[in-house]
Amino acid sequence: MCYDVKTSLEAQLKRAQRNQDLKAIEEIVEKLGPLTDLPLHHASGFSHPEVLIYTNDDPWYPIVATWGLIPHWVNTVEQQKKIWNSTLNARVETIFEKPAFRDAAHEKRCIFYVDGFYEHHHFNNNTYPFFIHPKNKKPLALAALWSTWQHPEHGGTINSFSIVTTLGNGMMAKIHNNPKLKEPRMPLMLSEEMEERWLSSNTTIEKEIEEVLNSTNDIALKAHTVGKLRGKNYMGNTESICNEVEYAELDAEKLNL
Known about the structure:
By secondary structure, the protein is an alpha+beta fold. It is about 20% helix and about 30% strand. It contains eight helices and twelve strands. The longest helix is centred in the N-terminal third of the chain and has 11 residues, at about 20-30. The chain is globular, with a radius of gyration of 18 Å.
């Protein structure tokens, strides 16, 4: 799963910078930046932070969106609150089947840029959080789905998104070993080539999903343990929260990370 991330305005400017439109970048920083909760040194999806996403409507200029997809067919606030926490992630195997994601999978794909993400490892009835990030320290492009929802009470528009997840492989298969789950999971990470195809309106992703999945194998990751992300020892959204913390009882070397 992917419920905890680290992201910054600098990371989320990556795609706009690639387009080399300096005026657009300045506008994003001045007008959209203040509308977000950035920087997020650590954020849980359950807090539904406001961030930037790049959509297939405009692949080069982001919009502000909240984490937790609200399907367009939700028609009451009660229904929205009930579904919100269950749409933080969307399993790639079922995005074309599940009612919450089906329309978005076909028509509303987006990219969420992060500096890295956090995942918990289970060992001797305890959990140990890891911070996972690209070896090259560049922002990581996560495949996501998005939706626009009109609030039934005040008529305002809310943009929202869900991170697409896939079967955990390699290092992530070792880290994400939650005994309550049938298999390890990880966010669907996109290579630069696949970013363009994911956002292209001319691409039928359903037919190319296997190639998109295979593209994650080209992304080299690093991981290290960090301080607790839950409970009384949680440091909150502080810059040092992603710093390495060693646990004597956990031999990370045996995981071959």
